[in-house]
C-alpha cells in the first residue's frame, strides 16, 4: 500500500489511528495539539524524525487545591523548529482501571498549523489582566510558534539575571539574609545555567531601595538605568531575566518527587484596556510573548502543572530591551525558600531546552 493510501486509511480508522494519521501528515514543520490531564498524567512523546519514545510523569502536589480560574487540564501544543513534530498524548486510568477513550482528545488532536486560532491560544495559555487587552494584532500565531530562540553558547556574557524587587522573600526567609530572597534564588539559577555552559551575569543591585528604605515606586525606573548600563557594557547579552515572587496563596507543584514553587511567566503589553500606551513602546513585544510562550509549552511538556498560564498586564516592565526577555514569578510570599530553590532546577531545564533547541 502506498504511503498516501495508508494515511487516508488511518484517517478514517479508530480515534487512535486518526491521531497517528495527524502525526504522519505533519511532516512540514506543522503542529500537533493534545489534551493534558492534570492529576496522574502519563505523556507518551513521539518525535517523527527518529520515532523516539519517552515517558514524562508528573503531578501537581496533592495538597495544592485546583484553581478554577487557572485550569491546567487544557491542550498542549508543541513545535520544535526543525521540521519534526512532538506529539504528546494524555492517557489516564479511571477508577475501574480502564483507560479514557482517546476520542476525548480527538477534537484537540486534529489541529494542523492553520487550524489553531489565536483566540484558542489566548484562552488556553494566557491570563489577561483586566487592566489590559490582548487583541490578535499584537502577535500572530506563526511568530508565537516558530520564532527561533536558539542561542549558541560562548564565553562572552549571554544571560543577565536581575531583580527589580530584590527584597522579595518567602514565608520562612530569615531577616536580612539575601540568600533567602529572590536574590538567592537568582544565584542558584545562575549556577545551574553556568553548569549547562552559558555565560551568566547575576546583577544583585537592590533596585527597590532608595535612601536606605524599600521603595517600590522607584524600582522600575532605577532598574532601567541599571539595565541600560549593563547591556551597554556587555552587548553580547541576549537573554534578560527579571526574577520575582508573586503575592497570594502558596503555589506548589511536585516535580521529580520534590515540592517546588509553581512558576508564572509574566508579560507587559504596553497597553491599557483602551489601547496602546504611546510613551511605553516595545518593538520586541511579539518576541517577548513568543519567548515566554515557548517556555510555557516546553514546561508543560517536561513538567505538567509546573507553570501557570502566562500572565499579561498593562505596562512595559522594562521588557523592551531584548527579544529574549522573561519576567518570572517564582511562587508567592507564602511558599518556602526551599520550594523556590527547588523550582530553579526544572526551570533551568526548560530555559535550556528553548535556547538550545533540544525540545526532548
Structure report:
The chain is α/β, with parallel strands linked by helices. The protein folds into 2 domains: 114 residues, no CATH class; 221 residues, Zn-dependent exopeptidases (Aminopeptidase, 3-Layer(aba) Sandwich), CATH 3.40.630.40. It is built from 9 helices and 18 strands. The strands form 5 sheets. The protein has a 7-stranded mixed beta sheet with strand order 6-17-14-18-11-7-8. A 5-stranded antiparallel beta sheet has the order 5-2-3-12-13. Helix 8 packs across helix 9. The chain is globular, with a radius of gyration of 21 Å. About 30% of the residues have low confidence.
Average pLDDT number: 76
Biggest sheet: strand arrangement? 6-17-14-18-11-7-8
Order of helices and strands: HHEEEEEHHEHEHEEEHEEEEEEHEEH
Q: What is the CATH fold-level name of the largest domain?
A: Aminopeptidase
Based on DSSP secondary structure assignment, what is the total number of beta strands?
Answer: 18
Q: Say which CATH homologous superfamily of the largest domain is assigned.
A: Zn-dependent exopeptidases
Q: Which terms summarize this structure?
A:
alpha/beta, 30% helix, 18 strands, 2 domains, seven-stranded mixed sheet, 23% strand, Aminopeptidase, 360 residues, five-stranded antiparallel sheet
Helices and strands, with pairings:
Layout: H1 3-11, H2 15-25, E1 32-35, E2 41-47, E3 53-60, E4 75-78, E5 86-91, H3 103-109, H4 118-125, E6 126-128, H5 141-146, E7 159-162, H6 182-195, E8 200-202, E9 209-210, E10 213-214, H7 219-233, E11 239-246, E12 252-255, E13 258-261, E14 263-268, E15 271-272, E16 275-276, H8 285-302, E17 310-313, E18 324-332, H9 337-356
Helix pairs in contact: 1-2, 6-9, 8-9
Amino acid at each position: 500500500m502506498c504511503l498516501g493510501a495508508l494515511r487516508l486509511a488511518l484517517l478514517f480508522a479508530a480515534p487512535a489511528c486518526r491521531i497517528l494519521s495527524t502525526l504522519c501528515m505533519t511532516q512540514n514543520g506543522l503542529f500537533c495539539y493534545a489534551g493534558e490531564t492534570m492529576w496522574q498524567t502519563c505523556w507518551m512523546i513521539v518525535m517523527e524524525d527518529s520515532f523516539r519514545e519517552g515517558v514524562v510523569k508528573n503531578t501537581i502536589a496533592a495538597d495544592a487545591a485546583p484553581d478554577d480560574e487557572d485550569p491546567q487540564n487544557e491542550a498542549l501544543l508543541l513545535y520544535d523548529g526543525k521540521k519534526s513534530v512532538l506529539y504528546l498524548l494524555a492517557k489516564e486510568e479511571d477508577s475501574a482501571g480502564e483507560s479514557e477513550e482517546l476520542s476525548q482528545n480527538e477534537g484537540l488532536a486534529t489541529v494542523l498549523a492553520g487550524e489553531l486560532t489565536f483566540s484558542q491560544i489566548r484562552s488556553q495559555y494566557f491570563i489577561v489582566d483586566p487592566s489590559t487587552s490582548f487583541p490578535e494584532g499584537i502577535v500572530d500565531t506563526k511568530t508565537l510558534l516558530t520564532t527561533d530562540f536558539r542561542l549558541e553558547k560562548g564565553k562572552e556574557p549571554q544571560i543577565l539575571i536581575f531583580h527589580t524587587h530584590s527584597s522579595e522573600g518567602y514565608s520562612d526567609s530569615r531577616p536580612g539574609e539575601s540568600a533567602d530572597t529572590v536574590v538567592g534564588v537568582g544565584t542558584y539559577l545562575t549556577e545551574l545555567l553556568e553548569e549547562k555552559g552559558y555565560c551568566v551575569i547575576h546583577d544583585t543591585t537592590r533596585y527597590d531601595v532608595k535612601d536606605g528604605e524599600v521603595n517600590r515606586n522607584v524600582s522600575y525606573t532605577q532598574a532601567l538605568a541599571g539595565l541600560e548600563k549593563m547591556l551597554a557594557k556587555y552587548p553580547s547579552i541576549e537573554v534578560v531575566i527579571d526574577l520575582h515572587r508573586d503575592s497570594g496563596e502558596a503555589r506548589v507543584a511536585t516535580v521529580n518527587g520534590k515540592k517546588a514553587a509553581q512558576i508564572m511567566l509574566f508579560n507587559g503589553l504596553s497597553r491599557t484596556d483602551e489601547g496602546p500606551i504611546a510613551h511605553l513602546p516595545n518593538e520586541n513585544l511579539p518576541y517577548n510573548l513568543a519567548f515566554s510562550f515557548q517556555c510555557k509549552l516546553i514546561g508543560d511538556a517536561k513538567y505538567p502543572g509546573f507553570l501557570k498560564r502566562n500572565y499579561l498586564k498593562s505596562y512595559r516592565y522594562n521588557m523592551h530591551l531584548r527579544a529574549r526577555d522573561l519576567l518570572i514569578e517564582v511562587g508567592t510570599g507564602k511558599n518556602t525558600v526551599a520550594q523556590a530553590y527547588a523550582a530553579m532546577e526544572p526551570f533551568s531545564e526548560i530555559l535550556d531546552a528553548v535556547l538550545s533547541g533540544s525540545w526532548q
